Recover the amino acids of this structure.
């Protein structure tokens, strides 16, 4: 008698990867919306009469709901009511936040600058309510479809798609805006809506897979306050949560100001020279620029995927050599374009998240095989210190590039070591609670430094703030539109008639976070040894 084994949708490889594309679209869109303002900071100053402090307030208040436990509430909703209802709720909330931001920027509600800023802030707060929980939703969905298959690879690709959203948002939002900020905000809001729609389409397959798997909720899987209490009394968990706050507070807020830093301190440009070599796709230089990032992303995905799919050692090495050779050819063909990009603030800053796409899976594989997670977190903290010293105190262009490169490596090292380590410290049934708690604590640090960098920047540059305000007031008195005012201010900036921001103190503050991160990593290594978590051991030990 032949026994027939009934396959589920998740057992079909093309279906798994199709599902990954569907759900990762929402991750891409939310990461884009989180970071795309960074390339628009000077345009927002000139068009909206916005100071650095107000810019930081708008970005920082994205985290306010999560600072007060929204992620944990989202986790409770997710556990109690399931992926489908949680996706509709939080996907809709994130989309609504984007729409409110776009309408506020377009003066739909009011043309008064203070009212416009308030509406945009409300939009960011609403977006923030949905932001982190949608990321948890996507992660949970990937686990559901890839557990027992290519789970690590799928997670790496999903993270890469999110980082691609950050990189593209930073790099090409100035191109999309075309000197009109509301255009870029509307585009970003539209992306969230598209991502939410694609995730809702996925829910059709979620219903089918639940029927096939006959999924039932377990009481042990649901959120309990007692789980949280056990975590916050665990020394190792407190240390890794503190490291999470210190490290990410030195990276994500920096990313919002990085393009402006590179322009003001190191003489990078905001606009590409008209004579510069560009890739034009379907008649659009913006699409051409985006295609370069997508190409880099595909190579980043290819390097970790090839070893995972080829078992023969000789063929694996040969395939890697061929892929690397193709990558070098790709870079060579784009050498003229990239030579201009590395002198452009938004484009150069966007290469930091792009670097994580390549390096994070590589470092993750190393940690799986060799361990040394706590030591790697120490190394990442050291690189963080070097990066921020190079970008704040020192004035060498060469060290600037080394600093950006070091930050990209640190941004790959620490997450690759940190998140698997949480799984060793927290029991499996409390892992969701652990991540929710860490994200909540992390958002306190992000909120403080998003706002803090902008506030300190204004404080140490009073002449710049006063000059910009004076010029804008004079141009407004002449009856010029926001776009005309922006163009006039940009002309003055190019002519060297405007003072530049001094970023030394605001960025040097982040060096202190790097020092704190080192001490926390050292104490974490010691605590791990005492409590027997084995963070220095390979993942399978």
């Amino acid at each position: 008698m032949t026994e027939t084994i009934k396959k589920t949708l998740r057992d079909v490889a093309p279906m798994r990867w199709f599902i990954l594309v569907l759900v990762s679209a929402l991750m891409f869109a939310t990461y884009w919306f989180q970071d795309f303002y960074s390339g628009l900071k000077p345009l927002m100053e000139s068009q909206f009469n916005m100071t650095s402090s107000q810019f930081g307030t708008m970005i920082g208040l994205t985290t306010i709901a999560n600072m007060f436990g929204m992620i944990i509430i989202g986790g409770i909703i997710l556990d109690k009511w399931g992926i489908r209802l949680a996706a509709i709720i939080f996907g809709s909330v994130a989309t609504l936040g984007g729409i409110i931001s776009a309408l506020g920027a377009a003066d739909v509600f009011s043309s008064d600058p203070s009212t416009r800023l308030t509406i945009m802030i409300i939009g960011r707060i609403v977006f923030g309510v949905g932001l982190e929980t949608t990321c948890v939703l996507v992660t949970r969905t990937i686990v559901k479809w890839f557990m027992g298959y290519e789970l690590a690879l799928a997670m790496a690709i999903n993270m890469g798609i999110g980082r691609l959203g950050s990189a593209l948002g930073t790099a090409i939002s100035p191109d999309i805006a075309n000197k009109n900020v509301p255009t870029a905000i509307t585009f970003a809001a539209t992306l969230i809506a598209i991502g939410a729609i694609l995730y809702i389409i996925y829910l059709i397959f979620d219903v089918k897979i639940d029927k096939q798997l006959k999924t039932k909720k377990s009481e042990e899987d649901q959120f309990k306050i007692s789980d949280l209490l056990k975590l916050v009394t665990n020394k190792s968990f407190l240390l890794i949560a503190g490291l999470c706050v210190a490290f990410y507070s030195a990276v994500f807020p920096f990313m919002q100001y990085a393009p402006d830093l590179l322009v003001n301190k190191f003489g990078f440009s905001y606009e590409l020279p008209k004579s510069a070599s560009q890739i034009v796709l379907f008649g659009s230089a913006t699409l051409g620029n985006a295609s370069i990032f997508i190409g880099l992303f595909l190579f980043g995905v290819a390097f970790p995927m090839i070893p995972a799919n080829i078992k023969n050692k000789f063929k694996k090495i040969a395939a890697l050599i061929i892929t690397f050779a193709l990558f070098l050819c790709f870079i060579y063909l784009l050498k003229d374009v990239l030579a201009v990009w590395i002198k452009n603030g938004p484009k150069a800053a966007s290469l930091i998240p792009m670097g994580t796409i390549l390096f994070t899976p590589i470092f993750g594989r190393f940690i799986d095989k060799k361990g040394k997670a706590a030591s790697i977190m120490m190394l990442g903290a050291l690189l963080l210190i070097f990066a921020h010293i190079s970008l704040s105190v020192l004035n060498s262009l060469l060290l600037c590039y080394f600093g950006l490169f070091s930050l990209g490596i640190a941004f790959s090292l620490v997450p690759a070591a940190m998140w698997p380590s949480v799984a060793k410290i927290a029991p499996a049934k409390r892992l969701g609670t652990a991540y929710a708690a860490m994200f909540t604590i992390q958002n306190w640090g992000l909120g403080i430094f998003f706002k803090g960098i902008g506030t300190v920047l204004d404080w140490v540059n009073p002449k710049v703030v006063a000059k910009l305000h004076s010029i804008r007031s004079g141009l407004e008195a002449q009856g010029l539109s926001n776009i005309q005012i922006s163009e006039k201010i940009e002309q003055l900036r190019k002519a060297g008639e405007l003072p530049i921001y001094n970023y030394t103190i605001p960025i040097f503050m982040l060096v202190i976070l790097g020092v704190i991160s080192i001490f926390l990593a050292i104490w974490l290594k010691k605590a791990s040894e005492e409590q027997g978590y084995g963070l220095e051991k390979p993942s399978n030990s």
